[in-house]
Specification:
The chain is an alpha/beta fold. The protein folds into 2 domains: about 280 residues, Zn peptidases (Aminopeptidase), CATH 3.40.630.10; about 130 residues, Glucose Oxidase, domain 1. About 30% of the residues lie in helices and about 25% in strands. It contains 11 helices and 19 strands. The strands form 4 sheets. The protein has an 8-stranded mixed beta sheet, sandwiched between helices. A 5-stranded mixed beta sheet has the order 4-9-8-7-6, covered by helices on one side. It has a 4-stranded antiparallel beta sheet with strand order 3-2-10-5, with no helix packed on it. Strand 7, helix 6 and strand 8 form a beta-alpha-beta unit. Helix 2 crosses helix 7. It is elongated. It starts with a helix and ends in a 5-residue tail after the last helix. It binds zinc ion. The site of zinc ion has 7 residues, from helix 7.
Length: about 425
């Protein structure tokens, strides 16, 4: 009887302990318009870094150097003002009907695009002739590339062509695929717009008002801290999650980045709270990286300017996209560290935490990458499940299920105790 009671008690303890109102509130706050999508308009990422540093402090994570912040500068293209497109006088919805390419230039004008057929687009010589003809005839002032129904290889080729041609004239591409945004460090001479096929009307006129600003020396900041082991040791385990996202595409539209990666940042803080009360015999560092979406910039800067000697880092656990998990998780670098991976899967089986743990080889798809390049052992863990919103305006707090957040957290704690802290 006593034992059953104990089991029930510990189970309910787990349920109530995880995904607390504080955790939800933290994730929600990161996704709110006040943080502007944690990008490069209105200092969204800097404001978020301030907020995370406060959360570090509350969770008992102390600065390693004098400050929590590690600053670095980079060039980034931004859309701080107007970002309006109307098609034959119909005002379109940014993020839903269209995207301005992350590297788009700005302009306020009426576009009368000429649509080039595929045979012209696939022939560099013909393109050149047709562009010259188009620009001298004055009837058209821009180019339209329709990629509807095309295969991936052709699509890739045409997207590259569109970027290339946007140095010469404004370009609109029509797509029937999901609109997926990113961040760019360069700015094309002319606007480059991606319009969804569902709203495209043939022989159209477009009035556009796009303000694009290239910022050559934007300052972003990693947030770094640790809990030192009680007994002095150099051994350090590092948990990382990037907190930046794509920011704003115009003053009216922002990308909340709930799953990517408010969820992972929340997990990072949540683990810190746990280890504050359950101190291991090794140092545990926590890094919230900036500039991940701009090309893994924060983690690159860190490994080149490490505030913890890389030799002291026993293992890095990078958490990116922690908000789903109904179909389990994937572990990138699993094949590089088979012992760590089998420990993790055993823990999962014993604890009955997640539906599946998928093994994947190395990939340059998040902040673990630069650690791997420097031979620091690292896993990158992401959840798989019902939430398919990715780099779009629909990746909102409300769409976050966090349905396996509790069990994932419990599993990461078990894995830390059984493996990482013993390295
Ligand atoms: Zn991410």
């Amino acid at each position: 009887m006593g034992r059953i009671f104990l089991v029930l008690f510990s189970f309910s303890f787990l349920l109530t302990q995880a995904q607390t109102p504080q955790e939800r509130a933290f994730a929600k706050e990161l996704c709110s318009p006040e943080f502007h999508g944690r990008g490069y308009v209105d200092k969204g990422d800097s404001l978020a870094s301030e907020y995370i540093a406060k959360a570090f402090e509350q969770a008992g994570v102390r600065p390693i150097k004098k400050s929590y912040f590690q600053s670095f500068t980079h060039q980034v293209n931004t859309f701080p003002g107007s970002c309006l497109i109307a098609n034959n006088n119909r005002t379109l919805t940014p993020g839903v009907h269209y995207l301005v390419d992350p590297s788009s230039g700005g302009a306020k004008m009426t576009l009368r695009p000429s649509e080039f057929p595929l045979d012209v687009l696939m022939d560099p010589k013909k393109i050149q002739q047709e562009v010259i003809r188009l620009l001298s005839a004055k009837k058209y002032n821009s180019l339209l590339i329709n990629t509807k129904g095309l295969g991936n290889d052709t699509l890739k080729q045409l997207n590259e062509l569109a970027s290339f041609l946007a140095e010469v004239l404004p370009v609109i591409t029509i797509t029937d695929k999901k609109l997926t945004w990113s961040v760019s460090s360069r700015q094309l001479k002319h606007p480059l717009i991606q319009l969804h096929d569902s709203v495209y009307q043939h022989s159209s006129e477009f009035s556009i008002d796009i303000e694009a600003r290239l910022v050559p020396n934007y300052t972003s900041r990693n947030v770094i801290g640790w809990m030192k082991a009680k007994k002095k040791t150099n051994k350090t385990i590092v948990f990382t999650a990037h907190y930046d996202h794509l920011g704003r595409m115009g003053s009216e539209t922002y990308f909340p980045g709930a799953n990517d990666n408010a969820s992972g940042t929340t997990m990072l803080i949540s683990l810190a709270h746990y280890f504050k009360e359950n101190r291991p015999d090794v140092n545990v560092a926590f890094i919230a990286f900036a500039g991940e979406e701009a090309g893994l910039l924060g983690s690159k800067y860190f490994v080149d300017h490490p505030s913890i000697p890389l030799n002291d880092i026993q293992f890095v656990l990078n958490l990116d996209i922690m908000g789903s998990g109904e179909e389990g998780i994937t572990v990138v670098n699993a094949t590089l560290h088979p012992e760590a991976f089998s420990t993790l899967t055993n823990i999962n089986t014993v604890g009955n935490y997640l539906k599946a743990i998928k093994s994947r080889g190395p990939a340059a798809n998040s902040d673990h990458y630069w650690f791997t390049q420097k031979k620091v052992p690292a896993f990158f863990i992401y959840t798989m499940g019902t939430n398919k919103h990715y780099h779009d305006v629909f990746d909102t707090y409300d769409e976050l299920t966090l349905s396996t957040f509790n069990s994932l957290k419990a599993m990461l704690i078990d894995f830390s105790k059984a493996y990482l802290f013993k390295l």
